[in-house]
């Protein structure tokens, strides 16, 4: 619980500087996926879709990514519903 509290205090809102650092390949605490990572959706309404990470849309409480699926559709998917493939 303390780790979550620390994470949410650091990343209260989306910040363009954090997005820019992430897009440049810098590690961001709590963010597991990188730009263009191939992923599979393992939960939620898009379960079974595969695609690539194209950006971060939310940082807390569960980071959310925009994933372009294999059909070219953009999906918002939380980190806990993704695995790297």
Chain-wise SSE layout:
Blueprint: H1 2-10, H2 16-23, E1 38-41, E2 50-58, E3 64-69, E4 74-78, E5 82-84
Antiparallel strand pairs: 1-2, 1-5, 2-3, 3-4
The CATH C-level name is: Mainly Beta
Named CATH topology = SH3 type barrels
Q: How many extended strands?
A: 5
Distance between the termini: 29 Å
Binned strand content? 25-35%
The ordered H/E elements are HHEEEEE
- The poorly predicted ranges are 1-12
Write down the oligomeric state.
single chain
Helix content range: 10-25%
- Per DSSP, the total helix count is 2
Overall CATH architecture: Roll
Instruction: Indicate the structural class.
Output: alpha+beta
Shape: globular
The whole-number mean of residue pLDDT values reads 87
Q: How many domains would you count in the coordinates?
A: 1
Q: How big is the Rg?
A: 13 Å
Order of strands in the sheet with the most strands?
A: 4-3-2-1-5
Q: What's the story with the biggest beta sheet?
A: 5 strands, antiparallel
What can you tell me about this protein's structure?
- The chain has helices at residues 2-10, 16-23; strands spanning 38-41, 50-58, 64-69, 74-78, 82-84.
- It has 85 residues and is α+β, with helices and mostly antiparallel strands.
- It has one domain: Roll (SH3 type barrels), CATH 2.30.30.30.
- The chain has a 5-stranded antiparallel beta sheet, with no helix packed on it.
- Strand 3 (64-69) and strand 4 (74-78) form a beta hairpin.
- It is globular, with a radius of gyration of 13 Å.
């Amino acid at each position: 619980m303390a780790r979550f509290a620390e994470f949410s205090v650091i990343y209260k809102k989306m910040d363009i500087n954090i997005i820019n650092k992430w897009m440049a390949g810098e590690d961001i605490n709590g963010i597991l996926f990188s730009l263009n990572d191939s992923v599979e959706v393992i939960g939620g309404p898009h379960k079974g879709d595969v695609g690539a990470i194209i950006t971060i849309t939310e940082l807390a409480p569960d980071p959310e990514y925009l994933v372009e699926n294999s059909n070219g559709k953009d999906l918002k998917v939380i980190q806990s519903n993704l695995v790297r493939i």
